[in-house]
Amino acid sequence: MTTPYDPNDPGRYGDPSGLPNFPAAPPPSEGPAQVFTPPREIMAAFWCYVAAAVVILIGGVLSLGAKQTLVDTLRDNNTSNLSPTQIDQAASVTLTLLLVVAVIVAGLFLLFAFKLRAGRNWARIVLAIIAILELISLLNGRGSASILSYIGILAAVIGAVLSWMPNASQYIAAVKRNR
What we know:
The protein is mainly alpha-helical. Helices cover 68% and strands 0% of the residues.
């Protein structure tokens, strides 16, 4: 004997389509989610990282003007017997790659800076690690020593320090609790 489907009693007999019944979605939360305003330390760190990204882009663009210096260096150290055309092409490819890398790195700096401003702790950690690595590289003499590189690294280090201040940490913790 088969019991007919009763739409008012879906518990025992289920859906006539044979699909299992799942509980309903929870009701929507009351009101909008709490919005946090970044403290001054986070905003200052954000602008420091934006400045570092701009310096990286400027450095990439300015490197294009150093083509002749690169060609002269390649010519002086030409152990592969490259022709002048090949040396010129190698310099062009190198400078183009340098500019592409500068654009990518600056874009990542900006992405991480916006995520930091939104209260993401992972972005704060990544930016701090990058700033520390840049500083170590410069202090070890492996980084470039132009005034532009000093400005960019200084901006990144200041941004890292600001992003770990107590108000910044409280902001990031509050945003994390609210998610």
